[in-house]
Write a structure and sequence with these properties.
About 10% of the residues lie in helices and about 40% in strands. The protein is mainly beta. Helix 3 (about 455-470) packs parallel to helix 6 and helix 4 (about 480-495) packs across helix 5. The chain has six domains: about 30-160, Immunoglobulins (Immunoglobulin-like, Sandwich), CATH 2.60.40; about 165-240, Immunoglobulins (Immunoglobulin-like); about 245-320, Immunoglobulins (Immunoglobulin-like, Sandwich), CATH 2.60.40; about 325-400, Immunoglobulin-like; about 420-580, CAP (Pathogenesis-related Protein p14a, 3-Layer(aba) Sandwich), CATH 3.40.33.10; about 595-700, Immunoglobulins (Immunoglobulin-like), CATH 2.60.40.10. The strands form 13 sheets. Strands 43, 45, 46, 48, 49 and 50 form a six-stranded mixed β-sheet that branches. Residues about 1-30, about 405-415 and about 420-430 have low confidence and may be disordered. The longest helix has 22 residues, at about 1-25.
Length: about 750
């Protein structure tokens, strides 16, 4: 009796649920965007309910904020509600103790909640606009109570309904002939597309390929939907009984002797008679998907003929049959781990592509290849020569002996709470890690270790790293002094400037910092973490991260350096860095990296330009850096320095005016130059040189230059005969100049001689 009662109850419940679903059937958007959030702190609960949780511009929404105190004492929590910026609220309906920040669209509420009571308020809101690129706009609620802080989000969707553009499909097809249905659908997501084929079939696909088994006219409807609404569009498709021949080969340029399969995509009202003519004298009748082999080189026209009671149709396809290329390869039969192996392929003039399978899971493409094996053993190398008609495989065995191994800097894939370093594009000579596992099926958890008093956090982190390795039967890593020096320096740097977990404040990469610390082994990656007070949690975080795990579970890893900083003045307080290395690996070679100005930099010809570059190795006595301006083929030195400004970063400030004065006329076009930096020895010989980066100097429009004033020629009228001017001279000219008239005759009175005295008697 009780079982019948339970069955009756279940049946009644099913009927009620069915009735409820018939009246209101929630869409997927109602499930994705509930508009509800709840946060609990002790005996206090905060609930945020938004109805409706989905809207478009103009939608009226209502938010209920409810605080429930289930305790025996009154409480005064602090509640912060962050509203999306595209929602406007009726701020005059806020309760006592609530304020509204118009700039931030935030509500601060300080309610007094008596014991065993509920306090709530209702706020009317309107969706003003929609962000079509990001329609998911949650309301975030922050509950603070007696030092405890809880944050939750009520998911909302504010967008627009989708748009359906052109619907692409043939207007007529034959019975059984495939037809592709496509529609241009746009709008904010999540978007779904469904098709009603008009014959009872419905497909939830974006671009289905369908066939119709009977002739007739079909009204096809495409529906695009998102949480904002549904939009439909209709097309008419006519299905004819007449035959239409169509086929496609899987390869229309095969090699002689290669099987070719032909896919029949014809249509027409059954029964259909099918006839194939392969153009080489071979025919097949009645086979829908035939496979044929062309024995000789040449071009063959394949013809498909189909026929029914409504008519006949033909389709043709030209098949070009060639021969596979003649090829071979040269490759050493032995190699050393870590040493480059060179392979050379060659073939006849028809070869268009060479591909290599090195037998260790790696592939190359090209006639010449270089490969490095990371583990000893015997590998079968396969080279494939392809000319479009066929492929010719050539294989050789290569025996690899143990030797030096260099390591790979893992790809950048940082995540919350930590990061993993990646290789600089400028750093050469890196290879891959060899992790013992690629992925984990379960969450990795470490057992706590009881450390003796006085064990430093860095020592504890090293112990947990080796405990994680031991779980996978890997030997422990040794402590590396130079690695730890680099790790500690970087940890201190990032605790103060946490903008990028693997780029130093001076711009150095992880590998460059190891060079600076003097580490002589191979580099195997850098892992960082922050916010973990327990080193066990930091290692668990790394082990559960696909980017960090290969660093710890590297079969080739031999040593690790640890850095740790605890600083309560920083945001994350606890900061960890692990530098991984391999003692017998090859260190990364230093690269002179030009940093700033970047390529294409433009400046005025009156500016002071700061030239920045990176060099991680300490300079030897007599070495210096010289920055050059490239003006055409000429290099003009702009200055030399020997000391970095910080860490491994060098900066030289140069007044553009002083340098541009040294540029010869025609040395550069339109103010376009280049700059580079060289590391030089004491004699000025270049040791290493950076890339050349383009820089443009434009005239400063604020500088006023004097404009040359044209000088007018002064024309002086000259008389036919110059007017003689008597000029006294100490030495008379014996002969007058040819262009002057003879000197005038000057009449001078000659004094009479005095009378002789007469004697007086």
């Amino acid at each position: 009796m009780s079982s019948r009662g339970r069955l009756l109850s279940v049946g009644m419940l099913a009927v009620l649920l069915g009735a409820a679903l018939f009246v209101w059937r929630p869409s997927s958007s109602a499930v994705l965007y509930s508009g509800y959030a709840r946060a609990d702190s002790g005996s206090l609960s905060l609930e945020v309910i938004v109805n409706p949780p989905v809207g478009t511009p103009g939608t009226q929404m209502q938010m209920v904020t409810r605080v429930t105190n289930r305790g025996a004492q009154g409480l005064t929590p602090s509640i912060l509600l962050r509203l999306p910026r595209n929602l406007s609220a009726d701020i005059y309906a806020l309760p006592a103790g609530a304020t509204f920040n118009l700039q931030q669209n935030h509500i601060d509420w300080l309610p007094v909640v008596p014991a065993g009571s509920v306090v709530e308020f209702t706020l009317d809101m309107v969706a003003q606009t929609a962000d079509v690129t990001n329609p998911e706009q949650p309301i975030v609620a922050l509950l603070r109570l007696q030092g405890d802080e809880r944050e939750v989000a009520a998911p909302l969707w504010i967008g627009i309904a989708p748009l359906v553009g052109d619907v692409t499909a043939k207007s007529q097809v034959s019975v059984g002939q495939p037809v592709r249905l496509q529609a241009e659908v746009a709008g904010p997501g999540p978007l779904t597309t469904s098709w009603d084929l008009g014959d009872g079939r419905k497909l939830d696909l974006n671009s289905p390929e369908v066939v119709f088994p009977t002739a007739g006219t079909h009204e096809i409807t495409v529906e695009a939907a998102n949480p904002g609404g549904r939009v439909t569009k209709h097309i008419t498709l006519t299905v004819l009984p007449h035959p239409v021949a169509s086929f496609r080969p899987d390869d229309d340029a095969p090699a002689a002797g290669q099987p070719v399969t032909f896919a029949n995509m014809s249509g027409g009202q059954p029964p259909l008679r099918v006839f194939w003519d392969f153009g080489d004298g071979s025919t097949v009748m009645g086979e829908q998907q035939p496979t044929h082999v062309f024995g000789q080189q040449g071009t063959y026209r394949v013809r498909l003929t189909i026929e029914n009671q409504f008519g006949q149709s033909e389709a043709v396809w030209d098949i070009s049959v060639g021969v596979a290329p003649v090829s071979d390869m040269i490759i050493p039969d032995s190699a050393i781990v870590g040493a480059p192996l060179t392979g050379q392929a060659f073939g006849d003039d028809t070869v268009t592509r060479y591909t290599w399978d090195m037998g260790d899971g790696r592939q190359h493409e090209g006639a010449s290849i270089n490969h490095i094996y990371r583990r000893p053993g015997d590998y079968y190398v396969t080279m494939m020569a392809d000319n479009g008609f066929g492929e010719t495989p050539i294989g050789r065995w290569v025996h690899v002996e143990p030797g030096t191994t260099s390591l790979f800097l893992p790809l950048t894939a940082g995540e919350a709470g930590g990061g993993v370093s990646g290789p600089s594009a400028d750093l050469p000579g890196v290879a891959e890690l060899d992790p013992v596992v690629q992925s984990l099926t379960d969450t990795f958890v470490l057992e706590p270790i009881q450390f003796p008093n006085g064990t430093s956090p860095a020592e504890q982190l090293l112990a947990y790293i080796n405990a994680a390795r031991a779980r996978f039967d890997l030997p422990p890593m040794a402590y590396g002094f130079e690695l730890s020096a680099a790790a500690q320096s970087h940890t201190l740097d990032k605790s103060r400037f946490p903008d990028n977990p693997h780029v130093g404040t001076d711009g150095t990469t992880a590998a460059e910092r190891l060079l600076r610390s003097g580490y002589s082994g191979g580099y195997a990656g850098e892992a960082t973490a922050w916010g973990f007070s327990d080193p066990r949690l930091a290692v668990e975080f790394w082990m559960n991260s696909d980017s960090h795990r290969p660093l710890i579970l590297n079969r080739l890893g031999t040593e690790v350096g640890i850095g740790y900083v605890e600083d309560f003045a920083t945001t994350n307080v606890w900061h960890w860095t692990a530098e991984f290395g391999i003692a017998y690996g090859t260190p990364v070679q230093p690269v002179l990296r030009a940093l700033l100005p970047a390529g294409g930099y433009s400046a005025l010809d009156t500016e002071v330009v700061n030239y920045n570059w990176m060099w991680p190795v300490k300079l030897a006595p007599g070495e210096r850096f010289t920055v050059y301006l490239a003006a055409g083929e000429r290099l003009i030195p702009m200055g030399s320095i020997v000391q970095p400004v910080y860490g491994s970063r060098y900066v030289l400030s140069v007044d553009a005016r002083n340098v541009l004065r040294s540029v010869p006329s025609g040395g550069a076009s339109s103010g376009s130059y280049g700059w580079l930096v060289r590391l030089e020895d004491g004699l000025g010989n270049a040791i290493v040189e950076s890339e050349t980066r383009a820089v443009v100097f434009a005239p400063d429009p604020s500088v006023i230059e004097a404009t040359a004033v044209p000088t007018l020629a002064i024309v002086t009228a000259t008389p036919a005969l110059p007017t003689p001017t008597p000029t006294p001279t100490l030495l008379p000219t014996t002969e007058p100049p040819d262009n002057e008239p003879p000197p005038p005759v000057i009449v001078t009175a000659t004094p009479m001689p005095p009378p002789e005295p007469t004697s007086t008697p």
